[in-house]
Amino acid sequence: MNDLKDICPAKMSKERIKREYDLRVLNCVSEGEYESRMAVWNGLTLAGATALEAKTYVDNAFDKMQQDLKEAKRELAINYADFSTMANEEINFIKVHVADNKTQYFWYATIVLMIAGTIALCI
């Protein structure tokens, strides 16, 4: 969880917007699933410098989401087990698509080498 908190806020915001579009438009997820997945993103932006383990983080995100829904006088029927599953999936998504710069650099280098190899073969 510590490596997720060190992500640049601008990059996190950009990826969050992409993820919201992906969930709402492309995947057409239910309101409950959308709220659950976004609760993970909300918690990451608010986590600050506190070190949290994944399970504690998921518990806190669930409690915060339930509290926010209660304050907004909305009911969202989702149990903790479903929320935990979605939250862990979302944390893995963030780790792979937002926090993992090494994999991104590997693919960039592979593309550059392929282009250079193609040009060398053509010459």
What's the topology here?
Elements: H1 2-5, H2 9-26, H3 31-46, H4 54-71, H5 80-99, H6 101-122
What this model shows, in words?
- This protein is 80% helix and 0% strand.
- It is mostly helical and 123 residues long.
- The protein has one domain (2-122).
- It is elongated.
- Mean pLDDT is 78; it is low at 46-52.
How far from one another are the termini? 48 Å
Beta-strand level of the residues, as a percent range?
Answer: under 5%
Characterize the overall form.
elongated
Number of domains: 1
Multimeric state of these chains? single chain
Unreliable runs: 46-52
Overall number of strands:
0
Q: What is the makeup of the main sheet?
A: none
User: Radius of gyration, rounded?
Assistant: 18 Å
Tell me briefly what this model is.
The protein is mostly helical. The protein has helices spanning about 1-5, 10-25, 30-45, 55-70, 80-100, 100-120.
Features:
123 residues; mainly alpha; 80% helix; 6 helices
